[in-house]
Amino acid sequence: MKVKGKVIKYGGDVNTDVIIPARYLNTADEKELALHCMEDLDRDFQKKLRGGDIIAAGKNFGCGSSREHAPIAIKASGVACVIAVDFARIFYRNAINIGLPILECPKAANECDEGDEIEIDFESGAIHNVTKGKLYKSMPFPGFIRDIVKKGGLMKIAKEFDGGAGK
Amino acid sequence: MSMTMTQEIIAEHCGGGEVKAGEIVLADVDVILANDITAPVSIRELERHGINKVHDADKIALVMDHFVPCKDIKAAQQCLEVRRFAREHKIKNFFDAGDMGIEHALLPEKGIVGSGDLVVGADSHTCTYGAMGAFSTGMGSTDIAFAMATGKTWLKVPSAIRFVLKNKPAEWIGGKDIILYIIGKIGVDGAGYKSMEFCGDGVSHLSMDDRFTIANMAIEAGAKNGIFETDEKTAEYESGIRARTVERKIGAGALYEAEYEIDLSALRTVVSKPHSPENVCFTDELDETAVDQVVIGSCTNGRLSDLEIAAKVFEGRRVHENCRAIIIPATQKIYLDALKSGAIETFINAGCVVSTPTCGPCLGGHMGILAKGERAVSTTNRNFVGRMGHPESEVYLAGPAVAAASAIEGKIVPPEKVMGGYEK
Predict the structure, then answer these.
(1) Residues 257-296 of B with CB under 8 A from A
(2) Which residue intervals of chain B bear CATH 3.30.499.10?
(3) Which of A51, A114, A119, B353 could, after both became Cys, cross-link B326 (CB 3.0–4.6 A)?
(4) What is the ipTM of this complex?
(5) Architecture of domain B270-419
(6) pTM higher than 0.90
């Protein structure tokens, strides 16, 4: 699968409280969460969205709370992928589990600018900054995580358990 | 054996033998936790995949604490959803308004979690139980739904950093000063994906409440978990509420990525300035920083000894006229004990608000939201932009002694400034 979109750029240590402030956690409705995504970090986030956007950020993206509402809000905002130097561990798991594409690639994240056009090939992990004419390779996922993604999420694996969990 | 304490517990929960850092394992889980914000997402995941039976209802704990007593209609709907789920699946460890407390104070107090356990929770501060020698870590709601359905969780075995705590801390130094000092030193990703393992003679001088505070904030250094060696204080805490204490010490051959030695006797009280827990300075380095609100409570510092330290500072004094102080005992038991000890009376006489247990203001939920431009000193765990209210408000993190002293002075001060012995 390939996606192409424009970069919305942020710095390091973007925490889940600014991705989706807790005052909106009285709902788990993804459309409602999306309306407040990034609100406390970037008032113009909603205006920047064109559909299929790429968030590029520094180190430790998604640090802080375990709220799965954070990747849900980003995904429901129509963001196609988050590229970061690296991710905080709970956010990393959550993004994989809910199917928000994320890639670790310090060079691609650091060298792009707001508005750059980026093309991503998820099969090969290649990141192409079309605007700058630069090609990068992202860190591949470990096998077990590739398996979760391939099967369509963690809960699909739960159903395979001991002849099927929860029956 | 080269395993760290964390690795030992993980190995015990996936068939024994040895596990190595970086390896991905499927481990058996002893306790699975979710709250009024995160459980609804887990419940919907289970329903969406047609899973209508949990693996073991007795391993699940659901605590209604974040927006409870419900702050608005939407919060009430979420609690209703969890209440129905708990009844349907006969989950005995369901804690609603009235007998609930803040999850990470409540589960240890009830003996639901303890030494040797492997605990996962849909709350990042699940790492708190490492104070008792458990492996516990926070995850998202889908991971928790998976654990509810299968009784298992997948883990990447973490490597670890060892923190050797030495000597006895001075009078006003608590667990909060120690962990903020460490986070200031290593940064908010300084222990990223790793375990923080605490040992050394200094640990014997720390109460269980201090250890809970330290393990609680391991996540604020990016850690997967924090864990303490067990000792007689662990055994004393667990006596009567757990069958036995699973003894845990760092093995002679255990491999660590790094080691830090912290001389507790040299520490002074610290605060974390806005807007990151790593933004640490000594309290006496701040000059005339006015405070509009003080919050003493939360899963970090809402335990009995935290309240008693604050009461000692508030005794016979008043909250400054330009400041508000909000005290939130973390559980009903702590509330009752603080009533009996006289701490609650001291707070009310000093002009403090005393609230029923709730996470409330810590995450900007309710019970003390900040207006634009307001500044708080809080014993909670995060001071991110907008964490306690308006995006242009500010939070300084501190321990209960600094928080109480600051409420009295109306500006951020070390406790010695109020209690005597202050030199600058």
Answers:
(1) 276
(2) 5-263, 270-419
(3) B353
(4) 0.95
(5) 2-Layer Sandwich (3.30)
(6) yes
